Amino acid sequence: MDIISLVDNMSEEMYLRLKCAAETGKWPEGTVVDKPQKDSALQITMAYQSRHLNSDQILSVGADGHIVDKTKRQLKSEFAELKNNPDNNIARFSDL
Predict the structure, then answer these.
(1) pLDDT tens by residue, 28-40
(2) Cα–Cα distance, 55 to 62 (Å, whole number)
(3) Are 57 and 20 in contact (CB under 8 A)?
(4) What is this structure's pTM?
(5) pLDDT surpassing 60 at residue 17
(6) Any long-range contacts for 7-10 (C-beta under 8 Å, 24+ apart)?
(7) Where are the alpha helices (DSSP H) in the chain?
């Protein structure tokens, strides 16, 4: 089975398990992931993100398979929009 057909048929639960293994170096139940497993988990996770998530968040994998990169100007603009949004639920501690 090639990686594309694997990713197309993979459940979100399996994606989350592989993502945990790639990020932490351990499976969700705590078993250590060896180097080849971690490399495969990272590759499959990135392919899943590209095929299914269509994220435009910085440092995620976009639909085109490339890492999403944004300029400082774009990030400042996005953060300004969030700051001015009344539905923004970010906690701010300005009295500290």
Answers:
(1) 999 999 999 999 9
(2) 6
(3) no
(4) 0.64
(5) yes
(6) 7/44, 7/47, 7/48, 7/51, 7/52, 8/51, 10/44, 10/48
(7) 3-8, 12-24, 35-48, 72-83
